[in-house]
Amino acid sequence: MFNWIQQFADWLIYSVFDLTPETHLAKALNFFVYDSLKIWLLLFFMVLLMGIVNTYFPVERLKNYLARKKLFGLEYVFASFFGAITPFCSCSSVPLFIGFVQGGIPLSVTLAFLITSPLVNEVAIALFLGLFGLKTTIIYVFSGILLGSIGGWVLGKFNLEPLLTDWVKKLLESKQQHLQYTEETSSFKQRLPNITRDAWQIVKSVSPYVILGIAIGAVMHGYVPENFFEQYLAGSQWWTVPLAVILAVPMYANAAGIVPVIQVFVAKGIPLGTAIAFMMGTIGLSIPEATLLKKVMTTKLITIYFGVVTLFIVVSGFLFNLLL
Description:
The protein is an all-alpha fold and 324 residues long. It has one domain (2-323). It contains 17 helices and no strands. It has helices at 2-16, 24-56, 59-68, 74-84, 90-102, 107-119, 122-132, 134-156, 166-173, 175-184, 188-223, 227-233, 240-248, 255-267, 272-284, 287-293, 299-323.
């Protein structure tokens, strides 16, 4: 389906609008059309799926189980591993995050997924394996899952649930209404219209944030030159890793788009750990992602989330430079 969306975006921008693919405007518009349609579809189907799950699966019982049982951090590892096997970028992971919160999964566990999902996926693994070899790939995958697990655990110590937006709190308060599907109707066919209507309402309420976030990402994608970063990051000074992460935050790209760029960075003298820190900052922390998260998180929660993840990415960059 995503391939069809990409073909439609190519046809619309390059054939209908008759723009040259190499121009900044064409790249930005193509990115905007593709990611907008992809995220809208993903958001709708994910929220719809969570509505079905809420109808048939005792999510509240699972939530209570995770809250009561001492799993010694394994719940964060499970969430991070699930994030690693899902092929989503940071903005695509946000709809899943909304679905998990709607489903009643603990916020700290959901954040572990949100951290890892854009950082590690099968596309990035395949590209890393081909470009940097097995050792680097193993360290990259392990560090991504570890980053999500520890990050979720640390964020869980802050008691962040009160910092969710009122919109999310209303969703959680209305969960009991979803449970009425089981009591009021007896068949899936009868329940589906109500579930679909609720899913569409959520999509409509989030859409302005989706449009704004992807628009920012499209501008970054189409107009920021790559060599702007190379002149500041080549070298072994201690400040290059933090600087790489700071410079990466305004950017936006998925793993498939940024890994080949990282290969170019390394070929031009940027240390591998610094380059990977830049990559993690680009796909794991971005202004478009923060814009989308504004629908579900208060500014204070976004600041805490970005601060913790930034710190862990910087530490990972230093470790990569030591190990590789």
